[in-house]
Each structure stands twice: as structure tokens, then as C-alpha cells.
Automatic annotation (TrEMBL):
<dbReference type="Pfam" id="PF00067">
    <property type="entry name" value="p450"/>
</dbReference>
<dbReference type="InterPro" id="IPR001128">
    <property type="entry name" value="Cyt_P450"/>
</dbReference>
<dbReference type="InterPro" id="IPR002401">
    <property type="entry name" value="Cyt_P450_E_grp-I"/>
</dbReference>
<keyword id="KW-0479">Metal-binding</keyword>
<comment type="similarity">
    <text>Belongs to the cytochrome P450 family.</text>
</comment>
<dbReference type="InterPro" id="IPR051996">
    <property type="entry name" value="Cytochrome_P450_78A"/>
</dbReference>
<keyword id="KW-0503">Monooxygenase</keyword>
<keyword id="KW-0560">Oxidoreductase</keyword>
<dbReference type="InterPro" id="IPR036396">
    <property type="entry name" value="Cyt_P450_sf"/>
</dbReference>
<protein>
    <recommendedName>
        <fullName>Cytochrome P450</fullName>
    </recommendedName>
</protein>
<feature type="signal peptide">
    <location>
        <begin position="1"/>
        <end position="20"/>
    </location>
</feature>
<keyword id="KW-0732">Signal</keyword>
<dbReference type="InterPro" id="IPR017972">
    <property type="entry name" value="Cyt_P450_CS"/>
</dbReference>
<keyword id="KW-0349">Heme</keyword>
<keyword id="KW-0408">Iron</keyword>
């Protein structure tokens, strides 16, 4: 009875039970009401778990509007205190603050070893070392340009496969395989042909899919610790089955690399094996880092390209304009090269406009955690609070963007040569699909280069049309770890060259 009475008292506070517990125990609200961030109470004990299922970015945006809390809203996920913003200035304050440089603990991430990789490693020396190694050997401009031939090769394999398709087909599978092969080549040095199935790629793609599903799920026991022993969603069980398979797969590749010392064609495994002194990683940490790179680099790229192609099918006049630019810069007698993209303005504008309307991480994929007490937008935010940014809501806010729901790449084409180009890499929070600040995406330049080049190639080679003139493209979404098209894009193509 006492427990129930306490639960109801906690629930009474704006923001729900987790905020109520904090305010009650610290007597904050009683002394300083201005500390109270507006937000939904949700239900007693569980708080607003309902907001985080299905299309969470839509629900959170609607809740922020109804509470007049677009700048900052508080809510509870069980015992977890959460703040979320739909405002670019407050987003900047959160993401660029050193206080929010940690990630909240997620059981599935720990079980899948991601706490030993960049994404979920606690903020500190180990995380900084990993970021430095990745920045120097995988994401630096020199390394990105040295893998250009690999991206070109995979692009031409995609073109050959698509050219053989008669009638309508789903494009997702081709994009996912291309993206996986690309990451496998950079990370493991393996070079498989897209058209010829092989067991290694099939196996890895299954591991990635399963990991993706597990990490994208809202795990009730992350927020209700008293449920942890029960594993009602079977997430712990599935993680414990997946991890030995990942270990076996990646460890085999590491051991093969150890035997082939002296290899001149250096991939990321070779780089990690060549590190000495304090940078040297244990085999287990190496597995975590390599697995994360494959995991993060594969789906984001494929998901974004599918959205771009969907928009191209839906807006044939915009597709024709990109193709006119491609014909002007490249001509029709040779394939697109990455260096051509530098002379183009409309193709990058299309990519930015799709990132605006369909950010692969509408809530920026992974939240942040306050490592100490701080102030956000004038409100007190205690240590241990989870912070999120609703990038989807920001990019659809009429106070931030003119005609936000209209697909209009022209908005990114500067009218004047003195206009500074809009950067999507994290400096302007009106559109920051790769996050911002210390924990922003380290793969952003590589990801953007791959997406722009592959989309350019696919549009240069083919005209993309709907599979059925009477059924337009369905832009419905499904939110897993990334936000994908709910119904995979089905198309027909006509060769252009
Ligand atoms: C279109 C492509 C991509 C998008 C939209 C994207 C988006 C994101 C976002 C939103 C975050 C969280 C940022 C934050 O908290 O501020 C992130 C983190 C991360 N991304 Fe990406 N990403 C993409 C491609 C890649 C690629 C190609 C790789 C690696 C090969 C990668 C590796 C990572 C890693 C390791 C982190 C965790 C960083 C940390 O916690 O320090 N991403 N990404």
C-alpha cells in the first residue's frame, strides 16, 4: 500500500513518475517551481512508455505540441527521466555540451558488446582512443579517397544487376547487399561480387539484421529494473544466442589476418592489429569495434538511398533535373566518377532535402546521458537524465523551414555564389541528421560520399519509374534503429545511356 501510495505521489508531477520521484526526494519542486519542465505524466509507474513504440518521433512531436513544450519536454520511461527538444537552439545546447557526452545504459547494447565499441562506450579515455583510431584510419579524407575505386566497383556491379532486371523489382535487397559488401571490404578486406551469393555475406547480413532488431527495440527492463530478472521480451536470451555467433565470425577473420602478416592491402583489421602500446586492443575489444563498424555503416546508407530513390520516383520532374545536371557534368558516354560530384549542386541538394524529410535517425538513433547536474534552456536537469533530440520535428517545423512538408531541393541551392553552402554535418542544428558535438557520427563524411555517389550513378544510368502507374510510392515509415520505408520500394527502370 505504501509503495502504491508513493507511486501515485510520484506520478502526480509534470513529466510523470521518474521526475516526480526525483523532485519529491530532493524537495525541488516545493522550493523552486520554475524547475519543473512541462511534459506528460503518462501512467503511474511506467510513465510514457507508450510514446516510444511504433513511430515515436511522431508521438513525441505531438505530445510536445500539446504541452506547449517544443523547446523542452520532460517525460518518464519507467524510472528513467527523459528530456526531449524539438528546437534547434536547445538541441545545440544539449548535443554540444560536454555534460551530455555519455550514452544511457542499454542492456541490449551491453550484451551485444557495443559498450566496448565507439557508440556505447562510456565517455572517457577508452572512447576517445577508439574515436581517434577510427578518425585516423577509417574516416580521414585520405582513407576515404583511397577507397573510391571500391565504391566505383560496387556501383558498377549494382548497375549490371539492375540492368538485367526485367519489369518491376524491389531495390532494397540490392542496396543492403551493396552497402554490406562495401563495409566488409573496408573493414575486413573481403571482396565479394554482388551477383554471386556467398555464405559469409549471407551469414553476416543475418547477424546484422538480428542485432539491428534487438538494438532498435524498447527494452522494458532498461527502465523498470524490477522487471530485469524476467526478460519478458526475450531480448537477453536473443542477445546471448547472437553474441557467440558474432564472436566466432569476426574472430575467424582476425585470426586469418594474423596469419597473413605483410599484406600490403591494409583494411581496418590490419590497422587494429598493427597498433602497439596503450592503443593496442584486446581481441574481444577488436571484435566489438569491427562488428560495430559493419553494423552502423550498412543500414544507414541503404535506408537513405531507398528514400532518395522513392522521392525520385514520386517527383519525376526533380529526377529529370538531376539527370540533366549529370548529363551536363558527366555526359552520356562514361560513368560518373566521385570527383564529378564536386561540380554538381542539384544532386547534393536532393540528398540534403531527403535527409531533411526522411532523416534515417529521426531521434538521432542513440540518446545522450547527463553525466552531472546541468541547466538546459534555463531548467535544472539532474545528472543521470537521458536527453533526446527530435530531429524529425525540427525539420518539419514551419517556424524553422518554409513549406516544411514540401519536397523542394531548391531550398539548398544557393542563389548567390557568395551564399555559404548549408552544412548537414552538425554545425547547423536546423538539419543535423548525423548529430552534433563530441558524439556526432564519425562516419558522416564517408556515409554522405557513398550515398551521393551511388545515387548519382543510379540516376545517371537509369530512369526510375513507379512499378505501377496507378499505385504511387507509399511513403509510410517504420522506426527500427533507423527509420525505413514501411513498404519496400518497388520500381521499374529504363536505361538512359
Ligand atoms: C547516412 C549515413 C549515416 C547516418 C544518417 C548516421 C547517423 C548517425 C547518428 C544520428 C548518430 C548519433 C550522433 C549523436 O549522438 O550526436 C551516429 C553515431 C554513430 N555513427 Fe553514424 N550515421 C551514418 C553513417 C555511418 C557510417 C557509414 C558509420 C561507420 C562506418 C557510422 C558510425 C557511427 C558510430 C560509430 C556512431 C557512434 C559515435 C559515438 O557515440 O561516439 N555511421 N550516426
Amino acid at each position: 500500500m505504501a509503495w502504491l501510495a508513493m507511486a501515485l505521489c510520484f506520478w502526480f508531477y509534470p513529466g510523470g513518475p521518474a521526475w516526480g520521484k526525483y523532485n519529491w526526494l530532493t524537495k525541488r519542486a516545493a522550493t523552486k517551481p520554475s524547475y519543473t519542465i512541462p511534459g506528460p505524466r503518462g501512467l503511474p509507474i511506467v510513465g510514457s512508455m507508450n510514446l516510444m513504440v511504433h513511430l515515436a518521433h511522431h508521438k513525441l512531436s505531438a505530445a510536445a505540441k500539446s504541452f506547449g513544450a517544443k523547446r523542452l519536454m520532460a517525460f518518464s520511461l519507467g524510472d528513467t527521466r527523459v528530456i526531449i527538444t524539438c528546437n534547434p537552439d536547445v538541441a545545440k545546447e544539449i548535443l554540444n555540451s560536454s555534460v551530455f557526452s555519455d550514452r544511457p545504459v542499454k542492456e541490449s547494447a551491453y550484451s551485444l558488446m557495443f559498450n566496448r565499441a565507439i557508440g556505447f562506450a562510456p565517455y572517457g579515455v577508452y572512447w576517445r582512443t577508439l574515436r581517434r583510431i577510427a578518425a585516423t584510419h577509417l574516416f580521414c579524407p585520405k582513407q576515404i579517397s583511397s577507397t573510391e575505386a571500391q565504391r566505383l566497383d560496387i556501383a558498377s556491379q549494382m548497375v549490371s544487376i539492375i540492368a538485367c532486371r526485367r519489369g518491376e523489382f524491389f531495390v532494397r535487397d540490392i542496396l543492403k547487399k551493396a552497402s554490406l559488401n562495401n563495409m566488409m571490404c573496408s573493414v575486413f578486406g573481403t571482396n565479394y561480387q554482388l551477383g554471386s551469393p556467398n555464405t559469409e555475406t549471407e551469414q553476416l547480413s543475418q547477424l546484422v539484421e538480428e542485432g539491428y532488431d534487438l538494438l532498435g527495440k524498447l527494452n522494458w527492463s532498461d527502465h523498470l529494473p524490477w522487471l530485469a530478472g524476467l526478460d519478458i521480451q526475450k531480448i537477453r536470451l536473443r542477445c546471448s544466442k547472437l553474441v557467440p555467433r558474432v564472436n566466432k565470425f569476426v574472430n575467424k577473420i582476425i585470426q586469418e589476418h594474423k596469419l597473413q602478416s605483410g599484406n600490403t592491402n591494409r583494411d581496418f583489421v590490419d590497422v587494429l592489429l598493427s597498433l602497439n602500446g596503450p592503443d593496442r586492443l584486446s581481441d574481444n575489444d577488436m571484435i566489438a569495434v569491427l562488428w560495430e563498424m559493419i553494423f552502423r555503416g550498412t543500414d544507414t546508407v541503404a535506408v537513405l538511398i531507398e528514400w532518395i530513390l522513392a522521392r525520385m520516383v514520386l517527383h519525376p520532374e526533380i529526377q529529370s533535373r538531376v539527370q540533366a545536371e549529370l548529363d551536363e557534368v558527366v555526359g552520356k558516354s562514361r560513368p560518373l566518377m566521385e570527383s564529378d560530384v564536386e561540380s554538381m549542386v542539384y544532386l547534393p541538394a536532393v540528398v540534403k532535402e531527403v535527409l531533411r524529410m526522411h532523416p534515417p535517425g529521426p531521434l538521432l538513433s542513440w540518446a545522450r546521458l547527463a553525466i552531472k547536474d546541468t541547466t538546459v534552456d534555463g531548467y535544472h536537469v539532474p545528472a543521470g537524465t537521458t536527453a533526446m533530440v527530435n530531429m524529425w520535428a525540427i525539420t518539419r517545423d514551419p517556424d524553422v523551414w518554409v513549406d516544411p512538408v514540401k519536397f523542394m531541393p531548391e531550398r539548398f541551392v544557393s542563389k548567390d555564389s557568395t551564399d555559404v553552402e548549408f552544412s548537414v554535418l552538425g554545425s547547423d542544428l536546423r538539419l543535423s541528421p548525423f548529430g552534433s558535438g563530441r558524439r556526432s557520427c564519425p562516419g558522416k563524411t564517408l556515409g554522405l560520399a557513398t550515398v551521393t555517389f551511388w545515387v548519382g550513378t543510379l540516376l545517371h544510368e537509369f530512369k526510375w519509374v513507379p512499378s505501377d502507374e496507378n499505385s504511387p510510392v507509399d511513403l509510410g515509415e517504420v522506426l527500427r534503429l533507423s527509420c525505413e520505408m514501411a513498404n519496400p520500394l518497388k520500381v521499374k527502370v529504363h536505361p538512359r545511356l
